[in-house]
């Protein structure tokens, strides 16, 4: 079956199958196209004043990414012919046919690389005035140093020496100048009064704004009440219930007499509903230039991050990784990671040192607009590690961040980095096949800049990229599994930012625990440390309520080494401690096994017996000295 085709249909059939770069598909990993290292992007600018008569039937071809060639374009000529046809009053078709697609490359031998059949494009320095001036400009955002591809070899002649760490590490003078280095003082340094007062002010402001709309009155909160509220939440992370109201239930199997004695349930619920960290009335609107997805948290996390960095200098060994905060509600900041234990929640990029101290962090808020951020992993590493540049830190991360251009960048900033890497990344050598490596064997290559890549056979293949290791140095390590358990302020939150707020309270406790162990050399568990902070935060409220009741049903006394023990934060609280008569018991301060001393006086708040007489006053000494 034949069909008559005119010239236009023939041209359409000839060129409709020519693939374009935008429609083509590739399985190549483009994640290494780092703007700081890849070849500078070149912009072609054609002067408007130049004549395009000679180029109206030509097109620019860039075959080798270095030279630009001018080729005759049958497609453009076809479009020109169609344009002339439409402009022709008589409607006649031009007799001259364009060059066919086969003729386009007839004089070019692709296999041998012969470019003789192609006319080179004129450069800006060309003296031919009839051709347009083409300026090749480098993007100003790119670095001036061009990317140098690696040359991998087995040559390990360069000496790999251990970098000299040139920075202080550990606590700063802020911690060293504390009068008493106890858990609550360290926590108050990180989670300081500036944050507490911010919470008090913004909570009262939000309640006032709400009263203006609804007309419902409220009782203003204060610093002591906010501390008690946070202390109760910390304890709820240890003594977990399905709902916060269960702690106040009258049912004896769920009722918690300690928590319920600190605050009424309705007041706790009011604080939970009204607690705020920023003013909603001045929040920038969406799609404006200063819109911030983390506006509700911004003052809080800014102050907290500053406190984290002012009070502690990270160890030489640091690590960058991601942390997930579980959240299943609806929010644009929520991320979905199906291969992670916590699949839905907020992602936080973290820089943590060897001891587990969170020194720098960034909350990931997703893509900006419709554009997807390229080189996200490299950008995160550069941003988080910027404050530790030129100090010879040893930085470790996983294959999500690792790339060859990133390693060369970190090496130039005196950051010695190592990370696992996916062998499908760009600029990597060809290793032995997996089947040729036995358990414990490894293969390696080094480039001209002392960047090392290793492929090691364990139960699975493990690949590492490093800019400071020596491939010939080997050591033995012991395997270990995850250990320990950290309680946290876990609660169902209707407001998305509540999860991040309570998460960073837990982070402040962890950082305080790291500092406390380093400064006191005390091996205290995270649970006991958390209990001590919670008890200190609620101490003032606890003492005030017991003074009103005169005698509490709940005693703060613990049996410790066969003597009654009251926490210092309660014992030294300078309010409401009053003596009262009771049965004769052994003095909590001066009585010993060898010298037993009994007294009829006791403290109505501490609920411990104490000597009170003309010649001996254990009551005053017990409430005014650290050693009791």
Question: Helicity, in percent?
Answer: 25-40%
- Biggest sheet features: 9 strands, mixed
Class per helix and strand makeup: alpha+beta
Q: Tell me the number of strands.
A: 20
| CA(first)-CA(last) distance | 109 Å
**What is the oligomeric state here?**
single chain
Radius of gyration: 36 Å
Shape: globular
Report the sheet-strand fraction: 15-25%
- Put simply, the count of helices is 17
Mean pLDDT: 77
Low-confidence stretches: 10-85, 89-143
Domain PiggyBac transposable element-derived protein: 182-479
InterPro entries: PGBD (IPR029526)
Organism: Aphis glycines
Protein name: PiggyBac transposable element-derived protein domain-containing protein
Key traits:
628 residues, alpha+beta, Nucleotidyltransferase, domain 5, nine-stranded mixed sheet, three-stranded antiparallel sheet, 17 helices, 28% helix, PiggyBac transposable element-derived protein domain-containing protein, PGBD
């Amino acid at each position: 079956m034949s069909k008559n085709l005119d010239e236009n249909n023939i041209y359409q059939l000839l060129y409709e199958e020519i693939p374009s770069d935008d429609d083509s598909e590739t399985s190549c990993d483009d994640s290494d196209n780092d703007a700081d290292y890849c070849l500078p992007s070149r912009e072609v600018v054609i002067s408007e004043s130049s004549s395009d008569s000679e180029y109206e039937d030509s097109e620019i071809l860039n075959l080798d990414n270095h030279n630009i060639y001018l080729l005759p374009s049958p497609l453009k000529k076809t479009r020109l012919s169609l344009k002339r046809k439409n402009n022709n009053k008589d409607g006649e078709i031009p007799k001259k046919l364009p060059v066919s697609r086969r003729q386009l490359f007839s004089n070019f031998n692709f296999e041998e690389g012969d470019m003789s059949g192609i006319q080179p494009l004129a450069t800006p320095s060309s003296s031919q005035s009839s051709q347009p001036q083409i300026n090749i400009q480098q993007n100003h955002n790119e670095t001036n140093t061009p990317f140098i591809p690696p040359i991998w070899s087995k040559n390990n002649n360069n000496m790999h020496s251990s970098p000299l760490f040139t920075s202080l590490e550990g606590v700063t003078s802020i911690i060293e100048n504390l009068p008493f280095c106890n858990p609550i003082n360290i926590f108050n340094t990180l989670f300081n009064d500036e944050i507490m007062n911010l919470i008090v002010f913004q909570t009262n402001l939000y309640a006032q704004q709400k009263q203006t709309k609804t007309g419902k009155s409220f009782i203003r909160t204060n610093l002591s009440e906010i501390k008690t509220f946070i202390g109760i939440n910390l304890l709820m992370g240890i003594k977990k219930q399905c709902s916060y109201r269960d702690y106040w239930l009258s049912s004896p199997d769920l009722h918690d007499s300690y928590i319920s004695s600190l605050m009424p349930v309705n007041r706790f619920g009011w604080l939970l509903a009204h607690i705020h960290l920023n003013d909603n009335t001045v929040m920038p609107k969406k799609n404006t230039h200063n819109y911030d997805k983390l506006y509700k948290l911004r003052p809080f996390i800014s102050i907290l991050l500053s406190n984290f960095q002012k009070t502690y200098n990270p160890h030489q060994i640091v690590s960058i990784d991601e942390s997930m905060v579980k959240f299943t509600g609806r929010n644009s900041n929520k991320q979905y990671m199906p291969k992670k234990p916590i699949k839905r929640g907020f992602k936080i990029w973290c820089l943590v040192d060897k001891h587990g101290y969170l020194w720098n962090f960034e909350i990931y808020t997703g893509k900006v607009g419709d554009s997807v951020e390229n080189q996200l992993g490299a950008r995160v590493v550069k941003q988080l590690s910027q404050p530790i540049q030129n100090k010879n830190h040893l930085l470790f991360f996983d294959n999500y961040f690792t790339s060859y251009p990133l390693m060369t960048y970190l090496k130039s900033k005196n950051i010695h980095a190592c990370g696992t890497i996916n062998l499908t990344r760009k600029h990597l050598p060809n290793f032995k096949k997996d089947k040729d490596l036995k358990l414990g064997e490894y293969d390696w290559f080094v480039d001209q800049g002392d960047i090392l890549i290793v492929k090691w056979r364990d139960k699975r293949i493990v690949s590492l990229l490093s800019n400071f290791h020596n491939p010939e140095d080997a050591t033995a390590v012991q395997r270990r599994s995850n250990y320990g358990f950290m309680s946290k302020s876990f609660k169902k939150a209707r407001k998305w930012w509540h999860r991040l707020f309570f998460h960073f309270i837990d982070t402040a406790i962890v950082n305080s625990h790291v500092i406390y162990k380093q400064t006191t050399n005390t091996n205290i568990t995270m649970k006991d440390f958390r209990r001590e902070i919670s008890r200190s935060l609620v101490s003032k409220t606890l003492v005030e309520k017991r003074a009103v009741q005169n005698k509490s049903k709940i005693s703060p006394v613990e049996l410790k080494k066969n003597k009654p023990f009251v926490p210092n934060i309660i014992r030294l609280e300078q309010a409401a401690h009053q003596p009262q008569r009771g049965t004769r018991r052994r003095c909590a301060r001066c009585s010993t096994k060898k010298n037993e001393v009994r007294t009829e006086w006791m403290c109505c708040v501490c609920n411990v017996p104490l000597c009170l007489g003309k010649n001996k006053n254990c009551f005053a000494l017990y409430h005014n000295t650290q050693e009791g």
